[in-house]
Amino acid sequence: MSKAPLKSYINGEWVLPATSTETVTAINPATEEICAIVAVCGHDDVDKAVQAARAAFDGYAAMPLDDRIALVEKLIAIFERRYDEMVTAISTEMGAPYDLSFNSQAECGPGHLRATVTAARDMEWERKVGADGLIVHEPIGVCVLITPWNWPVNQLATKIGPALVAGCTMILKPSEIAPLSAQLFAEFIDEAGFPKGVFNMVHGTGPAIGNALTSHPEVDMISFTGSTRAGIQIAKSAADTVKRVSQELGGKSANIVFADADLEAAVRRGVLHCFENAGQSCNAPTRMLVEETVYDEAVAIATKVAAAAKLGDPMEKGPHFGPVVSKAHFEKIQGLIQIGIDEGAQLIAGGTGRADGFNRGYYVKPTVFAGVHNKMAIAQEEVFGPVLVMIPFKDEADAVAIANDSPYGLAAYVQTGDLQRARRVARLMRAGGVSVNGAGQDYMAPFGGYKQSGNGREYGEFGLRDFLEVKVINGFY
Ligand code: NAD
């Protein structure tokens, strides 16, 4: 194995850490082979990156919006030209099956960048207020962007895109578990020709450089996507210097299936959506709440769908599911499945152990529990794997109460043949996004969570506003 350690990108240069000699190995979850070695930065490298971003800020913030947009459009063109490299990087580092990487995971890159450009063109950047005042929007400053591994390009694009368009400068710390897509994204940015210091990337882990980044006095904002656990630490670390902290955190999203839904289609869609990306999506519909009159029928459909779910090689095309991201994550999921069994939930598909037919790779059996009560740990904790729980409910009020009985509030789903009911229930769900009967999310629509699922909003204009300050100049006219 002779992979060169991945370099960080500071002030327009590809660099190895100045003093730190720590490395982390990233593992391909399908083959269990090393796919990258990450050279972990030290506090000195973090400081250099922050100083570079600070030095670049005034000039970049003053660049006309049209010129910033032109650079982002160049970035989109480079991304599109090198699209296949990104698809391979994602499937290699985190195991998303080829079709998912090609159609969704990588597509989020140009998709979000384009949406941000559209939002910037449509936005009212300045407007008159009162007799003589002017409201203006300005970039917030130096931003630290911290991203997870599960939809790596989605999270890179939803942070880097609006920060670049807004006129901010930035330091990205991508997930050490999925560094290949971030490396490639940084190469695209380098090729696009942004001024030196506008974009910087430091590789590393939370314990090594998390605090150095999130407490740095020259940093104005943290945009973080990841676990609620890390989000709490980051918010505390940023508090002493009163930074803006925008957080996209965990979820345990409810999917309410009413008896008047097209049951076969609704249950099938719900099971497959929960298993997509091996269950490693923050907004996965992991709690299926089913009206009790059709509960047994729904359980039978879910059993059939889960039993037919195929697992396979992420590098191959086809409608299969992939492995979960790492050995540690595989083991965490095994522990949670065992907890579900121990607390008396009825296992109707899957279970513990490596999926049949695989002698390597972190393949979790697609798992469904029936007879689940919402107070059980398996219904409350984010598993972040292909594990669905099915919970019966009596009526609409009961369904809403169970759906909202969670520390999280990221996404929610409603399946019904009655649109009036869908609209009523959607308004009662304490979640940042509700989807009715399988509707998808547009790149321009806001994405984010209530409660412990976070506090920011990404995508489109809402994402752009996250990176802007608002100023009023009274007596302007
Ligand atoms: P994680 O919190 O372990 O790590 C996320 C990132 O934070 C990584 O880059 C990691 O190195 C860094 N980090 C960890 N501790 C840190 C600290 N103290 N200071 C600074 N940085 C730190 O999360 P993960 O395992 O990579 O991702 C999975 C989690 O992300 C799940 O909980 C999932 O729900 C959540 N997620 C949320 C959204 C959303 O939009 N709400 C989207 C994707 C993932």
Automatic annotation (TrEMBL):
CDD domains for the chain: ALDH_CddD_SSP0762
EC number, as in UniProt: 1.2.1.3
Catalytic activity entry: an aldehyde + NAD(+) + H2O = a carboxylate + NADH + 2 H(+)
A single GO molecular function term of this UniProt record: aldehyde dehydrogenase (NAD+) activity
Keyword annotations from UniProtKB, A to Z: Oxidoreductase
PANTHER family the UniProt entry points to: ALDEHYDE DEHYDROGENASE, ALDEHYDE DEHYDROGENASE-RELATED
Protein name: aldehyde dehydrogenase (NAD(+))
Natural source organism: Sphingorhabdus profundilacus
